[in-house]
Design brief:
N-acetyltransferase domain-containing protein, 178 residues, Aminopeptidase, 29% strand, alpha+beta, two-stranded antiparallel sheet, 35% helix
Length: 178
Amino acid sequence: MSLYVTRLDKLKAEIGEENLHAFLSSFKCSAEPAAEQFLKRSAIRHDSESISRTHLALGQDATGADVINGFFTLAIKCLSVEKESVSKKTFKLMNVSDNIAQAYLLGQLAKADGVERGFGREMIKQAFHTFAKGKEMFGCRVVRLDCRDSLIDYYDSCGFTFIRKNLDKELNQMVAII
């Protein structure tokens, strides 16, 4: 499976913000409506304010027009970790100090309706490739994400480990070590 990924800010520089808004509005993801809305309403602002970086997985439709097959958003966000919430080995690898671990955040991940099975895993691999570059330049080997209960097994199969429910008890915090 071939994956062409470009950063949102790069595409914005190439086509302009108005055209970028129009392009993003074409993305449809029935499985993750909150992620779809993030891409359409918040991604450009988050990118402009350096809150996160959105990466678009692009493809072409039957007419040869560019389409968004999926996207993922990366950021940095600390993680509160209790020693009892993870194995001793994981706790040590996380470099926890005062119950806080520095972490990269896989903040959003969504594939477009109709995109083939396995595409999400390919985007996760691409995200980890980017995180590995960050680790090489800055350190930090923890990747975190927050997900719904129904996605715990999926992310577990992608190398993440459940830590706990987040503070509002709506999402689950999971980590992976790179």
